[in-house]
Design goal:
Elements: H1 3-11, H2 13-29, H3 31-43, H4 53-63, H5 65-68, H6 76-94, H7 104-125, H8 127-132, H9 134-139, H10 148-172, E1 178-180, E2 183-186, E3 189-192, H11 200-217, H12 221-252, H13 261-265, H14 267-287
Antiparallel strand pairs: 1-2, 2-3
């Protein structure tokens, strides 16, 4: 560790201790909501990433500590105001002031806790540190469960797009195929691209990966946005390849592929396929970036 980094940590040691204490105390105060969130993450495919997000946030804050904590000062007023807004939102949610259908209650409770934590960060470190650490702090929003109504639309779009990609793959390789909604009929088998086949878990993982890659490797905002948006068609392509591959293996190798381990646990394999497609794009975007501080030779 460099001398500058060591000095920075020492200078802000009390602030770090204060913020850790604030998070622990607030975590105990909102224990019921946090416990429900962990259980939701462990049992819902669309939210399996949630328990990893705080760890990634801590890693980002630590790795970027020299810029995030370069200027720190107490912002008591704004911090208390933001934390108070979070507490009020949590109280209103618990008293059924907002819709309780589906997971709306957990969504709002989690968002309210994040507001409280951001308020604590402001109190301990100030607005300059909040701006400098905007990405890792806002990255925490990914622990907020997607409302069921929105999630259903996302899954439907994944089903529809994945079915179309698989249909095009069958046509491209010369396999006769008939599509009826989410049903694909090829010689010897008819498959349905059900909700469980939408690959929402790996699609979320791909989105998060693109988000982190854009932050870590790119500086130009439109290129960062482009990389994140690429996760959407890439998710459909990845899932279409998965559906077509499993179907072809079931026809020409073993029918058990449609119900075997590759079907139920092979999401990671096809996630790697998506990463192989994405990697050259990341390399190209990074190479196209101008070096920091470069000045055009044209005068």
């Amino acid at each position: 560790m460099s001398t500058a980094a060591t000095s920075l940590i020492t200078r802000n040691a009390r602030r770090h201790a204060g913020f850790v204490a604030f998070v622990l105390i607030s975590g105990l105060a909102f224990y019921k909501s946090m416990s429900a969130l962990v259980q939701y993450s462990l049992h819902d495919d669309s939210s399996s990433h949630i328990i990893l997000i705080p760890l990634i946030t801590l890693f980002l804050l630590y790795s970027e500590r020299q810029s995030v904590f370069a200027t720190t000062r107490t912002s008591t007023g704004s911090g208390i105001g933001l934390a108070a807004a979070g507490v009020i939102l949590h109280l209103l949610t618990n008293r059924s002031f907002f819709p309780q259908v589906g997971n709306w209650s957990l969504t709002l409770q989690t968002f309210s806790v994040i507001l409280v934590w951001l308020g604590g960060f402001l109190i301990c470190y100030g607005s300059a540190a909040l701006r400098a650490g905007a990405f890792p702090l806002l990255f925490l929003l990914l622990i907020v469960p997607i409302p069921d109504a929105v999630l259903d639309r996302i899954i439907y779009a994944l089903q529809e797009g994945s079915t179309e990609i698989a249909y095009l793959i069958f046509q491209a390789v010369g396999i006769p195929v008939l599509r009826q909604g989410f049903l694909l009929s090829v010689p010897g088998v008819t498959i349905e691209v059900a909700k469980e086949c939408s690959s929402i878990r790996s699609s979320m993982a791909l989105f998060i990966t693109c988000l982190l890659a854009a932050h870590l490797f790119l500086r130009t905002r439109w290129k960062m946005l482009l990389l994140v948006l690429l996760s959407i068609p890439l998710s459909l392509i990845k899932n279409g390849i998965r559906i077509a591959t499993l179907t072809l293996l079931s026809i020409y190798v073993d029918p058990g592929f449609l119900t075997g381990r590759l079907h139920h646990e092979g999401g990671f394999v096809f996630f790697l396929v998506a990463m192989l497609i994405l990697w050259p794009v990341i390399v190209w975007l990074k190479k196209s970036e101008k070096p920091p501080g470069s000045v055009s030779s044209a005068m």
